[in-house]
Amino acid sequence: MAPTASVAVQAQAPWPGSDFHRPTLELLPLATQSQLHDIRRQTNEEGLVSQIAAGLRSEEKELPSLLLWNGHGLQLFDAILDSGKYYPAVREPELLSTCMPKIAHSISSGERVIELGAGNMRKTALLLRTLEMQHKHVDYFALDVSRSSLRSSIRELVGLFPWNPKTKIHGLLGTYEDCISWLHSQNDQKSPVTLLWLGNSIANFTPSEASNLIERFFRAGQASTVPVQMIAGIDGCQRQDEIVESYENEKSRNFILNGLDFANNLLGTKTFLTQDWDFCGQWNVKEWMHESFYVARRDLCLNIEEEQFRIRSGERVRAIRSGKWPLFKVADICAAANTSIADTWSNQEGSYGVYLMKSSLH
Ligand SMILES: C[S@@+](CC[C@H](N)C(=O)[O-])C[C@H]1O[C@@H](n2cnc3c(N)ncnc32)[C@H](O)[C@@H]1O
C-alpha cells in the first residue's frame, strides 16, 4: 500500500507579482512528497467564455477544444481509451514498451520531467519505472487542466512508487500557455527540463500552432538558461478505415457532446440544448487531420455575453482536430519551430512515432 496521508497542500503562487488568481488551500490525500501547484493565470471561466464567443464569430465556426477536458470529459475519454476500438491507445503504449529504455537514456538524472496534458498517466508509470531501473532520479511534474483528474491520476501514480524517495511527483494545474509562463518564472531552477507530450495531444493544434507552441516552450527554457528537450508521441496513421472506426462512434459522440454541457456550466445558462445538437466526424486527407464537429439540428440563435450568434440547421462547429502527421510532416513542424529531431522511434509500419526534439535556437 502507498504511504498516503491527508496533508494540507497549498496551491502555490507560481511567481511573485503575477496576475495569478486566488491561491487555494486544499486537503489532498496525496503522499507527502507530492504537491499540486496551481499555475493558472486565470480561471477556466475567465479564459474560456471569451474563446467560445470568438470561435462562434469566426468564419469556420469552432468551440475551444478545452471544453472537452473537464473531469467528466476525461472520464469519457478514458472510456474511449479502454474501448479497444481506439487504435492510438494500443499503438502508442506498444511502441513505448519497446523503446522506453532508449527514451529514458535521453533523460539524465536530476532532470525535471514535465508531462504536458498528462491525463490518466498510465504511460508515465512505465517511464518512471524505467528511469528508476537506470538508477536515475527525476522531479516529475504532471500538467493538466482538470484538477479532479490530476488529483486522482497523481494519487494512482504515487501508489505505484511508494518507497522511492528519489522520484518526486508534482501536479501543475493549468494550460500549456500557463506552463510556458511558469517555465519563464523558474529562473532560479537550473536543472534541465524534458517536456513529455504523449497521446498525439500536440496534433490537437494546426501544424503552425504546434510549431509556435514548441518554439515558445524552448524559448522559455532559453530565457531561464535551462536546457530543454521535448519528447512527443505523434500519430501518423493515414488509413481512413482505422481513423473513422476510432473517432466516429457512440463513445466519441458522448465525449464531444459533453463539451456543450461544460460550455453551459461556464456560461451559467442552458445556451446549448442537448436536443439541438448532433455529432459528426470527418477525415480531412488534405489537411492531414481528423475533425470532430457539433452539428446544429435546427436553425439556432445563441445569446452569449450580449452577442447573438446565428447557426443554420446542419451547420458544423468544430469541436477538436486530431492531426495525423507522418515523419516528414513532423520534420516540417519542427523546422518551423527552430527545432530539430534528434532521435525517432517508430513502429514497424511507420504509423506512430515518438520524437526527441532539441532546440536549434541560438
Ligand atoms: C489526448 S489526451 C492525452 C492524455 C495523455 N497524455 C495520454 O497520452 O493518454 C489530452 C490531455 O491533455 C489535456 N489538455 C488538453 N488541452 C490542454 C491544454 N491546453 N493545456 C493543458 N492540458 C491540456 C487534457 O485534459 C488531456 O488530459
TrEMBL record:
In its UniProt entry, what is this protein called?
N-methyltransferase
Which NCBIfam families does the record cross-reference, listed alphabetically?
Answer: methyl_EasF
Q: Give the record's family classification.
A: Belongs to the methyltransferase superfamily.
Gene Ontology MF terms in the entry = methyltransferase activity
Please name the GO terms of the biological process aspect recorded for this protein, alphabetically. methylation
Against PANTHER family, the record matches this protein to: ERGOTHIONEINE BIOSYNTHESIS PROTEIN 1, HISTIDINE-SPECIFIC METHYLTRANSFERASE SAM-DEPENDENT DOMAIN-CONTAINING PROTEIN
Q: Which residues form the Histidine-specific methyltransferase SAM-dependent domain?
A: 50-358
Q: Which UniProt keywords apply?
A: Methyltransferase, Transferase
Q: What species was this sequence derived from?
A: Penicillium atrosanguineum
Key word Methyltransferase present: yes
The family database entries (Pfam families) matched by this protein are listed as:
Methyltransf_33
